[in-house]
Amino acid sequence: MSDVQRRIAAALEGRRSQRAFVTELADLWTQLSSGLADLDSGIAAASQALRSLERPSEEQRRVSDALSEFGSAEGRRRIAELARRAADAQADVEAVVQRVHRDTVNLGVVGMTKAGKSTLLRTITGLPDDVIPSTENDPTTATSSRIYHRSGPSSATLSLHTWESFRDGYLAPLHAAAGLGPAPSTRGQFAQTHYPHVPEDPDARADVQKFLTRLIAARSSFASYEPLLRGGELDVSLSRLRPFVAYPVEGVHDPDYRPYHAVRGVRIEQAFPNLDVSDVGLVDLPGRGEAGLDVERQFLQGIRNEVDLLLMVKRPTVASAFVTEEDWQTIRLADAARGGVGLDDFVFVVVNRDSAHLPQALFDNAIQRITTETAKRGIRVLAPDVADPGQVVTGLMEPALAHLAARLAEMDRAAVTRVLQTVEQVGRDVQALTQEVQQRVRGWRSQLPNEQDAFRRLAIDLRNTIALDLTALLARYDELVQDDRPIEDLERGITEAAQTMRAYVDAGLGRGSREAWTTATERAYAAGALDAKQDEYYRLRSEASRVFGRIDLSLSQSVERLWVEVADLLRERLTEGLVPPSAGGTAADEPLRALRGTASDHDAPIIAAALTELLDLRINFGSIVLRVAQPIVRRIHWDADDILLVNVGESASATAPTPPAAGRRYQDDPPVTGRQPRRAAAAPPRRSRSRSDGPDGPTGPASDRDLDFGGTERQQAQRGTRRLYEELTTILHRRIDELEQALLHEARTTASILAAAADRFFVQVSQTNEVEWHYERLTRPVQRQIWPAMFDGGGAALIAELTRVDEQALTTGTAAARIVALAGARRLHTDAGA
Q1: Range 752-774 average pLDDT
Q2: Helix (H) or strand (E) holding 496
Q3: If we measure between CA atoms, which residue out of 237, 236, 239, 238 comes closest to residue 228?
């Protein structure tokens, strides 16, 4: 590794070590800058709040006078001045951020058209002229390029504009320069725009024509680059790069193919020949003679943020063998962008030895005159033949890189020191201002009526009002319990289920009529009596499960009704800002869930916990169908204990036992699975054997109840289906009665549970210690909506605006204090030689 390479690597490592500090400084500076803007707007808002008072008190008028005096003149003027200084320093802070994050030393290359800049770049990089083109008479560079010395295959990556960045960065400056007003806001508008070929104003500046020419070219070629205005990056091969970075040559290229308009910049990686120092980059900036490219802005941005050493390429001519005004303008721009680095460290003049067009004597004279002029600013002059690789290496690259190797660390230190001095002084001034603002605001606020005490009293009244409303709601549920009445929604669901199931039974057990059922069942009965009977029990039990299973929905509706009632009650007192209305399709619990979220966010945990418990009510209830209905439905079974009573001719009303309590079985209920062993029966005909028969034929009382012997098999089937119909309808009506009674009993229990839940919620949100503080925190954001007469945007708005100014001054002052401390500590560290 050469000494130059080693020293450059050490300087770059030094940059990396400063990244954390510089990033922290940049973040704090952003906070300070935005804080000043917020402080200014806050003072304006407070002044407006005072002017909006309809009947200001004497105290408010005094504060208004003081605030107007400070806000309209002295205070806002000082804030504006500090904001301007902060904005100026922001550019230097950003430049230092870019500097310490660069992993290469970058040489910026700039020159007037035909100065030889493109030739120099080709000589250094070894890239062909279709990548870095040049012409004899016209400018060629349309896009800023960054070329980095890297081993391996060459590559090119385009950074693309969006429509917005193209409009604002390219069209808008040209429109302004041509006196055309605002640029088209949309792609479609631009595509329909027709630009005049000559200025419409006969008194327009002579240079307006060149801006119109650029706009006409951009408009006529829009189709060639409009699809590329999408942002992001695009990789292209070097062989296809030219139209993305250079203007078309007249008579050679299609004048309406100009994709360079969509390109913000290009990054090229290429192994530079004859250069043994790595970590080198070249920044190719558009020439100063190119119209409409907003070169000064690009210089100030590009040079400040991307360049360590600026190479200003100049080709003397017989008519211009000295430093021209354009050259001095470039030097002035570099002087403005160097950010604390000495101009002698930052700029080199590269005089192109054009032996084909300039005699040696004139060239020597030009070198002498240029050196004499630039020496006044300490600027070094180099004079290689930019087309000669050997001269470029020895006469330019080696001196430039040796200079950076020797001076880069000191240049970085100078840039950082300049920024530290600036931000520390601005930070101190911001501290002083924010402290004064806080002192004034707190004094003004202390003179105003104390609305916080009024707000606290209102929060207590709100708690009491909600408690009274909840008492009325609770009384309705307690009345249901005292009268032993079920919940209306649940009672209606139970009654509808029982009526639906009875109608199903009466309509031929779901077949439409008894005759239809008999016709369908008789055939199955003749084929297998027990199979037919079991199939019917299975079918009817399934239907009962389905019909009564809908009762759980009624239970959910009962719980949801309580939620809706509570939400409506709270919304009336807390407004829709805290309890949003239920829109179509919105879940019934959504308003209370929204209120719970707000309570949690605003540190009102007592209210949030009460809402959580109320919202968990449905989960804690479980399924009424599984608990109460299903055990009875399971007794729709051919082995149920009361079926014998049906088949010996006793009426259902006379023999039906009293329904058991919900969830309990009759004393002699059969097992849920299997059958009770019964006496053996005579063997039925073979085709009537049940699919559950054992090897010795059917077992249990079902076999001797199902078939009568005597007569034809058809007659036996007719008698059996007739008795089966009577058995099924009787047992179904009995089970329906049992289900209805058990479920209504449960519905009355549910009323007591809902009453208890309402009471629990009432206690939590109205009688818990310190719950009034929770109401205060909950309602603070919407106090104007809840109490418009007290907090109508007047006094309360003024207090709120002054409080915001106080808080913003505190936040901005804190950022300024941290900047001062950070800058001071780092400056001491830098002064010590770090």
Answers
A1: 88
A2: helix 488-506
A3: 236
Phi-psi region of 186 (alpha: psi -120 to 50; beta: other; left: phi over 0): beta
Q: Is the pLDDT of residue 685 over 70?
A: no
**Cα(494)–Cα(499) distance, integer angstroms:** 9
Burial class, 49, CB count within 10 angstroms (exposed 0-12 / middle 13-18 / buried 19+): buried
Q: Return the SS3 of 584.
A: coil
Quote the CA–CA distance of 376 and 747 in Å, as a whole number. Answer: 102
User: Which among 399-413, 540-554, 627-641 has the top mean pLDDT?
Assistant: 399-413
> Average pLDDT of 368-382?
91
Query: What are the DSSP calls for 624-636, one per residue?
Result: HIIIIIHHHHTT-
Give the other-Cβ count within 10 Å of 245's Cβ.
25
The whole-model pTM stands at: 0.57
Residue 157: which of 80, 42, 266, 22 has the closest Cα?
Answer: 266
Task: Walk across the sheet containing 380-382 and list its strands.
Answer: 233-236, 155-160, 263-270, 145-149, 280-284, 105-111, 309-314, 347-351, 380-382
Residue 287 has pLDDT above 50, yes or no: yes
Q: Which of 125-134, 651-660, 747-756 is modeled with the greatest confidence? A: 125-134
Q: Give the pLDDT band of residue 463 (cuts 50, 70, 90).
A: very high
Q: Above pLDDT 90, what percent of the chain?
A: 40
Q: Contact at 8 Å (CB) between 813 and 430?
A: yes
Cα 330 to Cα 308: distance, rounded to the nearest angstrom = 16
Rounded CA separation 550/237 (Å): 69
Angle, alpha carbons 585-588-589 (nearest 5°): 125
**What tokens does 677 get?**
């062993």
Tokens coding 56: 């200001």
Strands 155-160 and 233-236: antiparallel
| Residue 270 backbone phi and psi in degrees, to 5 | -155, 140
Cα distances (Å, whole numbers) of residue 647 to 111, 362, 517, 534, 603: 115, 135, 19, 16, 69
CA 9 to chain centre: 41
DSSP code per residue over 660-726: PPTT---TTPPPSSS-----------GGG--TT-BTTB--SHHHHHH---SS-HHHHHHHHHHHHHH
Q: Which of 606, 615, 612, 610 lies closest to 588, judged by CA?
A: 615
Q: Mapping DSSP to helix (H, G, I), strand (E, B) and coil, where does residue 128 land?
A: coil
- Residue at 753: amino acid letter: I
CA pair distance 521, 786, nearest whole angstrom: 69
Residue 520 Cα distances to 11, 243, 526, 540, 614, angstroms: 99, 86, 11, 15, 52
Would you say how long the chain is, in residues?
834
Confidence check: pLDDT of 669 > 60: no
> How does pLDDT run across 183-206, given as a tens digit for each residue?
999 999 999 999 988 776 666 666
Q: What is the mean pLDDT of residues 559-565?
A: 88
Distance CA 348, CA 110 (A): 11
State whether residue 282 is helix, strand or coil.
strand
Do 278 and 157 contact (CB within 8 A), yes or no?
A: no
